[in-house]
Amino acid sequence: MCLGIPMQIRSIDGYTASCEAKGVYRDVSLFMLQDEKFQIDDFVVVHVGYAIQKITPREARTAWDLYDQMLAGEPGKDGTHA
Q1: Among 13, 8, 11, 6, which residue's Cα sits nearest to residue 31?
Q2: Is 82 within 8 Å of 47 (Cβ atoms)?
Q3: How much of the chain is in helix, strand and coil states, percent to nearest 5?
Q4: DSSP 6-59
Q5: CATH for 5-72, among 2.30.30.140, 1.10.10.10, 3.40.50.620, 3.30.200.20?
Q6: What radius of gyration do the chain's Cα atoms show?
Q7: pLDDT tens across the length of the chain (82 residues)
C-alpha cells in the first residue's frame, strides 16, 4: 500500500520545497509537478520525497483527520475499526 502525506510548503528553492506536516519538516521535490505554480503555504501530497499532487487546505485537513483516526484505532461510520 502506498501512502501520500499532505504537507504544507514553507519555502521554495527552484524545484525543492521545505514542507511541514505536524511539526515534521522534509525537503520535497516539486519536479514532477513543474507545470504547477506553487506559493508558500500551498499544500501538496508527498510520496517518497516527491510532491505528486497539489491539494486544498480542506483536503489536507480531511486527510489528516482520517490518518489520526486510523492511528487512534477509532471506529469509522460503520462501527468498524480502521
Answers
A1: 13
A2: no
A3: 25, 40, 35
A4: EEEEEEEETTEEEEEETTEEEEEE-GGGTTS---TT-EEEEETTEEEEEE-HHH
A5: 2.30.30.140
A6: 14
A7: 678 999 999 999 999 999 999 999 999 999 999 999 999 999 999 999 999 999 999 999 999 999 899 889 866 666 665 4
Yes or no: say if 17 and 30 are a contact pair by the CB < 8 Å rule: yes
3-state secondary structure of 1: coil
Q: Which of these, 59, 34, 21, lies nearest to 12 by C-alpha position?
A: 34
Nearest-angstrom CA–CA distance, 12 and 71: 30
Joined together, the cell numbers standing for residue 3 give: 501512502
